[in-house]
Amino acid sequence: MGSIRGVLLDSGGVLIRPIGGRWNPRRDFEPTVLEVAPHLTEADFARAIDAGERFFETAPPDATRDDYHRALLDEIDVPVTESLLATLGRPLEPNTIVEPFPEVLDVLHELRRRGLRLGCVTDNGPGIERLHEGLGIREFFEVYAISAVLGCTKPDPRMFHHASEALGLRPEECLFVDDVPALVVAAGELGYYGVALEREGPTEVANTSIADLNQVLELI
Question: N or C: fewer beta carbons within 10 Å in the chain?
């Protein structure tokens, strides 16, 4: 990979992880909903979370966070109000909901020291930049390709091309890192170098797999 001049990184699962181990819904979902529906049980919330997973499988790229919460609340017959949606979607301090993986800051510093250009390619909302800023990693990224902003999700080629073109680089000059091996394969088909970050152990989907972000430094 001697020709690599830029690194494109996914966010969740690569750079950051949820405190408490769950991305969606946020860990404040249950206590917030219990304030208006104290009769709900753990089984009810399990049903709601399953409904949320189904929502993600079928939702269009422009679906909002409010749409997601409506799907959960409808599943457990909780009246949807603007006040409740606002509370569920309110910004929280970054260090209360997510945190960087332990090695991330050191790796980002080293990549920048080596002169690599960095971009973030993420299926996320526009608030991800604010979140990264609160975690101290926003400064490393010259460009963000965000699904909610571009109106598409990975593996749509626009996600990858937006980042590499904004960096002024060709696909073959970029290494793409994601925790979903199938997306790494898709990036490879577009001409990018790709590596799957599989913290729980490698699968047979991607040709190249690493266990933590430190190993990116060994590849470049």
Answer: N
